[in-house]
Structure formats: C-alpha cells, structure tokens
Write a sequence for this structure.
C-alpha cells in the first residue's frame, strides 16, 4: 500500500535591519486585574496591523508594565491574553501617534467565566506556559522568531537577559547548564554566544527555562537549566525550512535551516547553518584610585568579526513496541578575528608617573562536538515501567593567540609580546534511569557517572630587541591539566491528587578532582560529597486560586582556571591568579508563588 506524502517546503528570506528611526513611536502601559487592581505579569500582548496581521509580540514584566519601543505610526490594535482572563482588544488610531509616546496607563483584564457546556475555543497560540519548575517560551507562537536569531529571542524570555557583551545570563548569573532536547550539550555551552547568534529562531520549537530542576538533573549551574527544543515531526512525512538573514551595522549575513523526517519506525530531525557576525568598534574606560591618591586610567577600544557554523541532528528507530533506540550529534566551529587598543596613564599627586599604549591583533578558533546514544526498554508484563541506558561524549577545543605591540612609552620598558593558549575539554557520561508508577505516584531513580579531562597550554613570548624575534618566557608561560569525576545517584517522587501536586527528591553527588600544574610544580586534589534535595508543592483551591512552593539546591564547582596558582601578568598593571583550595559554591533556591483569578 502506497502512502501519499504531502511535502511542505518553506523558504523564507528575512532581512533584519538594526537602526533607529526618528519617526518611530513607543507604546507603553500597565496590565492589571479588573477586580483586585493587582498588576499582572506574563500577559501576552500582540501588536496587530489593521488587517489583523501580528507584527510584534511581548509579555508584561513582573510589575505588569510593557513597552513596544519602535512602532511606525499607523492604525493598530493590541490583543491582550492571559490564562484565566477574557481576551481583550484595544484599537489604536493613527492620530494617537502625534506624540512620541502613547501611554495607555492601566489596562484591566476581566476574569473568564467558566461554563459547563461544550465549547469550541479559538484564539492565538499562547506564547508562554508555566509549570511548577519551569516556564516554556513557544517560539513558533512569536512572529519575530521568523526574522531573529535565537540569542535575540532569549532577550524576551523571563529569567533570561543578555549583557552588553552579548553574554547570556539566567537570573543575572552566568552559571547555568545548556541542554539540547533534554540532553546536556558541552559543545554549545563552550561557544554559547556565537552559536546562539548563528541559529535562526525559526528552527527552534521552544525554549524551557528550568528554575527549579528536579533531582533527575545534575546539580551544576547555580541559576538552573536552559533547554532548547528543536522542531520535530510527529506524523509520517517530512518538511523543511530555510532562513536567510542580514543584520547591520551590528551582525552580518546568516543562513540556517531545519529538516524533519518520519517514516514508520524511523525519525530524523536536523538543523544547521552558519553566519558571519561583525561587532563594530566599541570603547571602554577603566579608572582606579588607590589609598595614596595614585590614579590608573585606561581607555580602550575593540572590534571583531566572528564566523560560525553549526549542525545538529537526532535520529530515532523504534525496534518494536517496547524498545526505542535514539542517537544525537551536535557540532559547531567558529573563527574570530579581533583588534583592540588601549592607552594607559598612571598619575600620582605630583603628575604623570607612567604612560603607554598598545595594539593587540588577536585570533581565536574552536570547535565542539557532542555525540550520544540512548536505549529505552519497556516491559511487556509491566507497562508502567521504563528503563533507559545513555552514553554521551562531548569535547571542546579552543586555540587563541594575540600579538601586543607597545607605543608612546614613558617610564615603561616592557617588551612587545605574543601569547597563545591551547585549551582541550573532554567529557564522557554514562547514565541509567528507571521510571515506574504506582497508581497516582510516579517514581524515578537513576545512576550517573561523568568523567572529565581538561588541559591548557599557555605560552608567553617576548620580543628580543637584539634578535628581533619572539622568545618564550618560561616564567610567564603556564601548563596544566585536570580530571574531574562526578558520580551521582538520585531518587524522586511525583504525586498528583485532585488539588495537590507534590514533587520531591534527593540527589547524591561524589566529586573527585585532581589538577596538575606543571608551571608551578604543584598538585591540587579535592574530594567532596553533596546531598542535594529538591521539593515542589502546588495546591489548587475551589475559588480558582493556587499557591506553590519549591526548594532546591544548586552547586558550582571551581573551574581549572580558578584552581590554578599560576600568576598571569600579561596585563602590566594587573595580576590574576587562582586558589587550589577553593571549595564549591552551594546555593539554596527558595520560590513561593500565589495566584488568584476572580470572576
């Protein structure tokens, strides 16, 4: 029997233009409950044209406020949607744009009446969903995902932010884990900024921000977990998408696409692409004054161009109704060329003590790979049980080099120098998970072992003024390696009753670290044990209100650079060193929430 497969191939070409138009206006306001007058966070607001086409989507902040920053004067409507509230439409006439800012002040949403009759519900797809331990941002429901990269979309997601250097932050912290389709990704985490800039958001299904990770997940990452879900296909057939974009003056050309295929027992989903990202020149100033009144002033400027390519795929094969085999592969590579310059002055109470300038031509290359395989085994006589075996290999290789040339010297004799850094990271992960259920109680348990091997070779060469060539300086060069092995076991329980939802678990982690620092002829050994609890409780009341409480612990282990006692003196005015006796940081995370929806 032949199957007729409907093939859909989407091709979209989007040109992203970054800039500021003096004719643009702002639309601001605050959303609140019509009964309690309390402000409402995470309300989805869509800005629509007169033909009902959605052009921008955002969600209200924690204080209920919102801001559409760049709107071309025209006739629009705002569509406001929140769980438990009636959909509200607000027309905006083009004449309202006579002022620079349209301030709508307070917008009140009425609670939705719940009827007993069967109804058909139609409306826009919700952009954010909340669960006890996470929020889920649906990129497919946001029209801006068709033309933005993934990093740009993350600026809109609650708990996530991007700093001035385009570094991704979760709850203001750089310590978090990155997953792809529920699996940790060492390759993307090692080059996160560049990879997220190069991935078109149109190839991503959703992004989960897990603020209270259950005991199943590693305790690493103080802020939590960011899980990127790629597009998949559930029925037989295939589809694909292609995205071409251009950004200027910041950014550059990019190409990305996604492809999904499913036929009977076999499934495949892939995404990939590349980009060239230009960061125009920026400036910075650093000023420090010591107790004696001596002032150090440094003014710098820098620019860079980054080229990134990436590819990710996931394969699945259903051996029979009880056995499933899956595999995944992620790859990314990047090359960065940068130029920076700095002018430095050391000024005392009696005048200028020292001054110099320098220029730095630097290059960096790197690539990362994740490869894993998973086997899920069901039981014919026990349908409620599932056993999973997993293996994951990850590696990151990064090479950096820079040449620094000094000029405008005054009381400054340091020679020109060149420095190179070769970093290698490898990780093997073995894991066994077991899931079962007893009536309304779900039980999970598992064992995991992570074997890490990291190394770095740093060479510092100074230019000999007589020989006119660079000579390695062993005092300022550095070499080290370390192994970090983490062995863990977990047990978690989930109980769902009529109005109660309880999740509780505990994770045991044993960490063994050995670091060898050849440049200082020293060794650092660490051995510690952690008990990591996690609990989340939610209660729904008959008056349509609810409360929830969660508690978890997160851990941040010191990296090899933090443990290394080597003193880095590459900047003449600063010294940087590590401490081999550093202990891990343990964070207690407590969250409490209350919601009340009135009719």
């Amino acid at each position: 029997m032949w199957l007729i497969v409907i093939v859909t191939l989407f091709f979209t070409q989007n040109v992203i233009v970054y800039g500021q138009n003096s004719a643009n206006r702002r639309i601001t306001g605050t959303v609140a409950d019509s009964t309690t007058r309390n402000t409402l966070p995470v309300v989805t607001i869509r800005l629509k044209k007169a033909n009902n086409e959605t052009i921008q989507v955002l969600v209200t902040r924690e204080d209920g406020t919102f801001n559409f920053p760049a709107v071309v004067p025209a006739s629009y409507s705002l569509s406001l949607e929140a769980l438990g509230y009636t959909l509200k439409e607000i027309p905006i006439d083009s004449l309202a744009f006579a002022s620079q800012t349209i301030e709508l002040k307070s917008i009140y949403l009425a609670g939705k009446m719940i009827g007993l009759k069967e109804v058909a519900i139609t409306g826009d797809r919700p952009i954010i969903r909340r669960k006890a331990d996470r929020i889920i941002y649906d990129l497919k429901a946001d029209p801006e995902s068709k033309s933005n990269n993934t990093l740009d979309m993350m600026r809109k997601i609650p708990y996530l932010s991007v700093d001035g250097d385009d570094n991704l932050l979760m709850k203001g912290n750089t310590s978090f884990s990155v997953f792809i389709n529920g699996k940790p990704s060492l390759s993307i985490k090692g080059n996160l900024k560049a990879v997220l800039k190069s991935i078109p958001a149109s190839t991503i299904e959703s992004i989960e921000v897990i603020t209270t990770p259950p005991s199943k997940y590693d305790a690493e990452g103080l802020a939590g977990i960011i899980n990127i879900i790629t597009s998949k296909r559930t029925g037989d057939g295939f589809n694909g998408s292609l995205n071409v974009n251009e950004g200027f003056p910041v950014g550059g050309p990019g190409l990305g696409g996604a492809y999904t295929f499913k036929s009977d027992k076999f499934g495949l989903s892939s995404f990939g692409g590349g980009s060239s990202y230009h960061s125009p020149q920026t400036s910075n100033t650093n000023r420090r004054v010591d107790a004696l009144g001596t002032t150090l002033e440094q003014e710098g400027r820098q620019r860079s161009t980054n080229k990134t390519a990436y590819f990710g795929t996931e394969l699945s094969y259903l051996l029979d109704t009880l056995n499933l085999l899956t595999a995944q592969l992620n790859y990314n590579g990047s090359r960065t060329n940068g130029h920076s310059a700095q002018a430095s002055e050391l000024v005392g109470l009696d005048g200028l003590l020292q001054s110099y300038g320098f220029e730095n031509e630097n290059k960096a290359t790197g690539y990362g790979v994740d490869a894993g395989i998973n086997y899920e085994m069901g039981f014919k006589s026990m349908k409620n049980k599932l056993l999973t075996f997993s293996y994951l290999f990850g590696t990151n290789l990064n090479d950096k080099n820079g040449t620094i040339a000094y000029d405008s010297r005054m009381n400054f004799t340091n020679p020109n120098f060149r420095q190179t850094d070769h970093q290698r990271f490898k990780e093997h992960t073995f894991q066994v998970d077991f899931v079962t259920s007893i009536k309304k109680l779900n039980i999970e348990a598992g064992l995991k072992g992570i074997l890490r091997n990291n190394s770095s070779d740093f060479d510092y060469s100074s230019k000999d003024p007589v020989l006119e060539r660079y000579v390695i300086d062993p005092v300022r060069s550095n070499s080290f390696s370390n192994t970090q092995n983490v062995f863990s076991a977990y047990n978690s329980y989930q109980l769902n009753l009529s109005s109660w939802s309880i999740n509780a678990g505990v994770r045991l982690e044993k960490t063994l670290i050995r670091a060898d620092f050849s440049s200082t002829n020293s060794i650092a050994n660490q051995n510690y044990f952690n008990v990591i609890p996690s609990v989340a409780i939610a209660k729904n009341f008959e008056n349509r209100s609810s409360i929830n409480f969660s508690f978890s612990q997160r851990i941040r282990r010191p990296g090899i650079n933090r443990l290394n006692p080597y003193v880095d003196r590459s900047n003449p005015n600063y010294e940087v060193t590590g401490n081999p006796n550093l202990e891990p940081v343990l964070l207690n995370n407590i969250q409490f929430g209350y919601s009340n929806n009135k009719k």
In short: Residues 16-124 form a domain with the Immunoglobulin-like fold (CATH 2.60.40.10). The helical segments are 150-154, 186-190, 192-198, 560-563. The first strand starts at residue 8 and ends at 13. The longest helix spans residues 192-198.
